[in-house]
Amino acid sequence: MIFNNRFTAGNLLADKLEIYKNDKELLVLSVPRGGVVVGSQIAYHLDTPHIAIVVKKLSAPHNKELAIGAISSDGSKIVRWDLLSKIGISKEYLTNEVLSKKKAIKILERKLQGNDLSSEIIKFKKYVLVDDGIATGATILAAIRQMKSIKMVGEKERMAGLILAIPVIAKEVYNKLSSEVEEIVSLDIPDNLISVGQFYKDFSQVSDEEVIRLLENKI
């Protein structure tokens, strides 16, 4: 399935989540930057609050699209140690990449003033966690770990009330993440997913300014 853009994907996901419309116990959380575009449409159609959960991909040195892991704003970290060993990435590189992404997270969080993740999560009982696609699962898993930490749910426990809403997700990752959440709502689950961008006609970069605008409900 090929989506015109992230807005289209968000609208299609919103249709599949219609049962949650006007649910006062529901919060939409989106991974910036692209995930916020998708999440904005879901939150708009469900008439639900919408905040960002800031997570950054840890990238391989010679291929920034290849995720060797991910880190969230609270330091929750996912590292694909098998991949590091396979392609020969040093621990020194990983350390520097983690520090770099921590700085990037702080910069983005400063821009998202008023986006108080912990206090917002505690207010609600149900959650829709959104990104624009999942190839390896590292980024979304770091986000799930952070949410579990806030809700005091064990790392290996399924988090009740947590729904993943993802336009496209690799089948292998879908199977792995199914034990982490209550439900995964997706529009396409391909056997092979090399790049999320291949499932979009328009997969252009999203600016911080657009993220802020969308989180302020300025659709």
TrEMBL record:
Translocase listed as a keyword: no
Q: Which UniProt keywords apply?
A: Glycosyltransferase, Transferase
Glycosyltransferase as a keyword? Answer: yes
Superkingdom in the source lineage: Bacteria
- According to the entry, every stretch annotated as the Phosphoribosyltransferase domain falls at 16-151
Pfam families from the UniProt entry:
Pribosyltran (PF00156)
Tell me the protein's name.
Phosphoribosyltransferase
* Cited Gene3D superfamilies: 3.40.50.2020, PRTase-like (3.30.1310.20)
One example GO MF annotation: glycosyltransferase activity
